[in-house]
User: What shape does this take?
Amino acid sequence: MRPLLALLLLLLLLAASAAAAPASAPVPTIKLNQLGYLPQANKLALVPAGAGSTFEVLANDGGRVVLRGELGPAASWAPAGDTVRVADFSAVHLPGSYRIRVPGQPLSDVFAIQPAAYREAGKAALKAFYFNRSGTALAARHAGAYARPAGHPDDRVLVHASAASATRPAGTVIAAAKGWYDAGDYNKYIASSAISTYTLLAAYEHFPAWFGGLDLNIPESGDAVPDILDEAMWNLEWMLAMQDPEDGGVYHKLTNLRFDAMVQPHEAMREPRYVVAKSTSAALGFAATMATASRVLAAYDQRWPGLSARMLLAAERAWAWAQAHPNVLFKNPADVLTGEYGDARVDDELAWAAAELYITTGKDSYYQAMAPETVSATVPAWDDVRGLAWMSLAHHRTRLSPIADQALIASRIDGLAARLASEWRSSGYRVGMKGAEFVWGSNAVMLNGAMMLVQAYRLNGRRDYLDAAQSGLDYVFGRNALGLSFVTGFGARMPRHPHHRPSLGDKVMAPVPGFVVGGPQPFQQDKAECPPYPSSLPALSYLDHACSYASNEVAINWNAPLVYVLGALSALTPDPGSHAMTAKNHTREELLRQEAVLQFDSFGNEAALAIGLKLVELARADGKAVAIEIRRNGMLLFAHGMRGTTPDHTDWIRRKSNLANRTGHSSWFVHAEVKANGGDIDAMPTFDVREYAAHGGAFPVVVRGTGQVGTITVSGLPGAEDHALVVRALQDYLGVAGEL
Assistant: This one.
């Protein structure tokens, strides 16, 4: 994340970390996700190719064999120079503690299978942002052993000569408080802040029930706003202060002239801090983030009056500045030696900003400015944000204006996911990354790829996309060539000495938990200052040493996709009691049978109330949030939106209900029919996508001898799960036993 440190800093770093130099630990021969698995998740482990042909899964309480299986064929993976066989134990669903046994090999690490397997790690990964807050003390009641005094209030920051203007000449004092420290250092950068903050906002926008239920024990907890949004606000307020109120331009970064020593924040405030030059990339990243924040935070206008409107205005002003200054590329001034985040091209930031502004404002001019036909979809990174544009367009596709090319949106997401899934299937280690993709922050490449696979799964429900995303998380938590969980505080073996000033300066033996380190990469930019790396192979080139900013640093833009993926897999992986798995595989005849069996002798207000409440009960038991609407002959009999649902769900309900009323079938049946015939569910002939939605969740209410009299409709989950939820509620109400 940064160039070579100054000699003095290096000497301080090495002296401080020498006593903590890591001892080499044996790499486990059986590699798996040390954090654990959700009951219905895809579950894979890696076994040495010469170990035999069979494996067993043992209950950890007594060694009872719960599964015997055949290992997959031997396959090599060039980035690790390794050949392995895969043990697939996805069939083990029962919650508990387990180990894997392979003849002639040591037992695997103990791992858990639990419905809430990722909850604590998700909380820690999100709370890591709190631990990296600038400008505030971390109290012991929130931070525990990692409590510290406030550092870098940034209430008196100087305008650097590179950022000077007529109204703010060089040396002008401004305030730009709050924000997150970028990484292992104490500076703040718009480039990394933009993608990090967006990813947290998107996590809540996509999975409000899961993230809305996380209590982080931060100062704002309990204020009737989800903690994930409170945490995002800490950085959004700083970002707003980085916009020049005179012209709408955005300063690229807030920084010292050189990096601080490896000490606590309050001990690192001897140097003056500056806002440094405006840039086109900063303005566009700012515009995209603020446009996203404006729509996500609109529901909390009582908490932050007028803020949503202020953010949208700030976004449009930054966009206008970028239009007037389309090619102001940032380079560090000669006297600034901190991280540059220089970006040689800004077409990706332009596409992302245009997409977010289009979604939030509904103005077609922004979609046209995006020139979507020229924009490909890629795995997101701070310097390539094209994928974020498609991610947002895909999520909001049902409420976009007619100008939006629905087929193009779907093809961009699915095309990227298909490539990643193909690599996942063919990889010996079953991950969607090649050797060339092991760059600085390789773990974030893995996690951002998983995030994009999730988008495709949300679009079309292809289970292999979800399984490939799961493998990305498995890699980060231990199913990698080093057998190491790359997340501090989680796993049987984890980083102990990350390049993170607060963790090194606080004198606490264990590092701050919840941070994912950058991970292996072969370029070893810090090798002159560090002990020898164990290998130059891409997947083995890693040092657990505080000197290693090239492989062992932390960063907010690496943690953000970790937060997203932990929540997404928790929310999307079907629960053991859910019928969502079977719903995806129902035949045409089975779906028709559901409609034939789940009929009423009569249907009135009391029935609607009972079924509506049952739907709420089932969703709450599954930890999900849905919106529900039940109508008879057009009259609304029951409506409820659980906490975390949005007005978008009301529109989904309207369009799915329209489809069920017009066809007389469940919307999931129509979805399955169209797919089976090779059609496009978002481009059905004679069905305007603005009025009809062929996604699961609407079920016809049929009274025997009368015919269809209404609909029961649910929205908030993937289509198969919406449909399954309605079927479960109807079975309960009508007393229909067995699986339909």
Summary: The two ends are 54 Å apart (CA to CA).
